[in-house]
Design a protein that fits this description.
By secondary structure, the chain is of the alpha/beta class. The protein folds into 2 domains: 2-155, NAD(P)-binding Rossmann-like Domain (Rossmann fold, 3-Layer(aba) Sandwich); 164-262, ProC C-terminal domain-like fold, CATH 1.10.3730.10. Helices cover 51% and strands 15% of the residues. The protein contains 10 helices and 8 strands. It has helices spanning 10-21, 53-58, 69-79, 98-105, 139-147, 160-187, 192-213, 217-224, 230-240, 243-262; strands at 2-6, 27-31, 47-50, 62-65, 88-91, 110-115, 125-131, 150-154. The protein has an 8-stranded mixed beta sheet, with helices on both faces. Helix 4 links the parallel strand 5 and strand 6 (110-115). The chain is elongated, with a radius of gyration of 21 Å. The model has no long low-confidence stretch (mean pLDDT 97). The structure holds NADPH dihydro-nicotinamide-adenine-dinucleotide phosphate and (2S)-3,4-dihydro-2H-pyrrole-2-carboxylic acid (A1CAB). One of its GO terms (cellular component) is cytoplasm. Catalyzes the reduction of 1-pyrroline-5-carboxylate (PCA) to L-proline. One of its GO terms (molecular function) is pyrroline-5-carboxylate reductase activity. Pathway: Amino-acid biosynthesis; L-proline biosynthesis; L-proline from L-glutamate 5-semialdehyde: step 1/1.
Length: 264
């Protein structure tokens, strides 16, 4: 597997770390215009850092694009003559449809749209994925790449916008909940480091319980809420203050913003 990550920024570098973590590539190119901050990656023998997208594309078979939405069209325009049917072209770009990619590079390419999140750097991304007609022949390969770095779900392209909010932005939403829990723990007397440790591991435990049991969250909540106990008292107060409602409204607001990004 010869991977090029075009746009080694926040997400691109997270993917690069995930690839290294999972030994997922024989060679890897990382590109950005200003390469000085990421030259360090060349200490991994099979990694080349360059600002030359052309070199990266010509020497790779799997191309992962992770540039900002406003840069993607012009990069595809510049590179389209180098893209061949031997490439698997994976876009992570928010709000950029497969048909728009096909308009620039043609439908005769294997095109996959993916939505990973930054936890890919530690091999624990939730990645949603879909493809163009020809890309269906390579979707299993793309899934295999992302499955090495977490969990993958194939979805219809129409759901990609929603997946972006729940899975990609979702990392930030969960981080904020962990931070708020940490602040609560500090107020109750733990020092900051311990407070974060308690918050992170409890969050991890809650997710693991659901993943391993397959249970609905409310079933697990019922096991925690002792009648007349402290948990239900706290939960009810959180709901009086709008916990679920504010999360849902935030999710819908993020979703609506993507439509604006799509329109440029
Ligand atoms: N951040 C996240 O968690 C997620 C992001 N995404 C999507 O991934 C994409 C990247 O987001 P994010 O990583 O946050 O953005 P960043 O701005 O952090 O990364 C984009 C990178 O692209 C580089 N770049 C710009 N122009 C070129 C070019 N011509 N050739 C090569 N590289 C170039 C930039 O570096 P330089 O300026 O030095 O060239 C920059 O490092 C977006 O489309 C976003 O919607 C999707 C899911 C999650
Ligand atoms: O905030 C953004 O627009 C990108 C897409 C999802 C995560 N980061």
């Amino acid at each position: 597997m010869k991977i090029a990550i075009i746009g080694a920024g926040n997400l691109g570098l997270s993917i690069a770390k995930g690839v290294l973590h999972s030994n997922g590539a024989t060679t890897m190119y990382l590109t950005k215009r200003n390469t000085s901050e990421i030259k360090d990656f060349e200490k991994y023998g099979n990694v080349t850092v360059t600002s030359d997208n052309k070199e990266a594309i010509q020497n790779s078979d799997t191309l992962i694009f992770a540039v900002q939405p406003g840069h993607f069209s012009s990069i595809l325009e510049e590179m389209k003559d180098l893209l061949t049917e031997n490439h698997v072209i994976i876009s992570t770009i928010t709000g950029f449809s497969i048909s728009k990619i096909e308009e620039i590079i043609g439908a005769d390419k294997h095109i996959v749209r993916s939505m990973p999140n930054t936890a890919i750097s530690v091999g624990n991304s939730m990645t949603c994925i879909c493809s163009n007609e020809l890309g269906k022949k390579r979707i299993d390969l793309a899934k295999a790449i992302f499955n090495r770095m977490g969990h993958t779900l194939e979805i219809p392209e129409e759901q990609m916008q929603a997946a972006t909010v729940i899975c990609a932005s979702g990392i930030a939403f969960w981080m904020r909940l962990i931070r708020a829990t940490t602040q609560g723990a500090i107020q109750l007397g733990f020092d900051a480091k311990e407070a974060q440790e308690l918050a992170m591991h409890t969050c991890n435990g809650a997710a693991s319980l659901l993943i391993e049991s397959g249970n609905h969250p409310e079933e697990e909540i019922d096991r925690v809420t002792t009648p007349k106990g402290c948990t239900i008292e706290g939960l009810n107060e959180m709901e009086h203050q709008g916990l679920s409602s504010s999360l849902i409204r935030g999710i819908v607001t993020s979703f609506e913003k993507i439509s604006k990004i799509r329109k440029g």
